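Researcher: Checking consistency across runs. Here is Beta-ketoacyl-ACP reductase again:
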Amino acid sequence: MSRSVLVTGGNRGIGLAIARSFASAGDAVTVTYRSGDPPEGLGSVRCDVTDGSSVEAAFEQVEKEQGPVEVLIANAGITRDTLLLRMSEQDFTDVIDTNLTGAYRVAKRALRKMLRAHSGRIVFISSVVGLLGSAGQVNYAASKAGLVGMARSLAREVGSRSITANIVAPGFVESDLTADLSAERRDQILSEIPLGRYASADEVAGVVRWVASAEAAYVTGAVIPVDGGLGMGH
C-alpha cells in the first residue's frame, strides 16, 4: 500500500537516496529543500526547518498533494565545524537549531495527523559522531546525540498509538565531502572502520526504509548504526 512519505533535506546525499528508495517501493514521496535545486521525479517543497511557519506551509502542501504524512524522515542538517575554543555562539546555535530543533518542529507537526490515525513512522537521521564524538564537531555531535534522547522519549509518549520513533546513525558515507578528503585522512578513517570501506547512501537508505516498514512494527526507540562497525559498543 502506498504511503505518504516526507523526507526533510532530501534533495541530495543520504536524504535523496532515502527518498528514491521509498519512491521505488511505490510510496508517494516529497522532499524538503532549503537551497539548491529540487530533485527530478519526486515531489518537492522549499522549507526551512528553522522556521516554524515554513514547516507549517510545507506540511499543508504535502497534505494537500499526497495526504497526511504517514512516514517522516527527519534528515535535514548542517555542519559548522571548528574547535570549541574557536566556535562562535552563532555556529553552535545554528547547528542545534537546524539539526535538533528542526527535527522537533517537523516531528511535532507530523504527529498531529499520526495520532489521529493511530499509526505512523518517524525516523531521525543521526550520526556515529553523535555516539563517539568528534574533535571539531562539538555542535554537530551534540545535535546528533540529542536526537537519540528525542526519539526515545517520543517512543514512550506515542507508542500506545502504534507510532514508532527510531534513530538511524550512519558512519562515513561515500559523498562529495568524503571524496574531497586528503588521501592521508581517507586512509586514517578507513583504518578505523572494521569493514574497511565507506557506506553507500543506498545502504543507509535501505535500513531507513526497513525501520519504517511493517516488518519493523515492533521496533521503536532503537539506535541502528550503519557505520561498518566504527561505533560498535555505543
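Researcher: Does this match what you'd expect to see?
Model: One thing to look at in this run: Residues 4-173+200-226 form a domain with the Rossmann fold fold (CATH 3.40.50.720).
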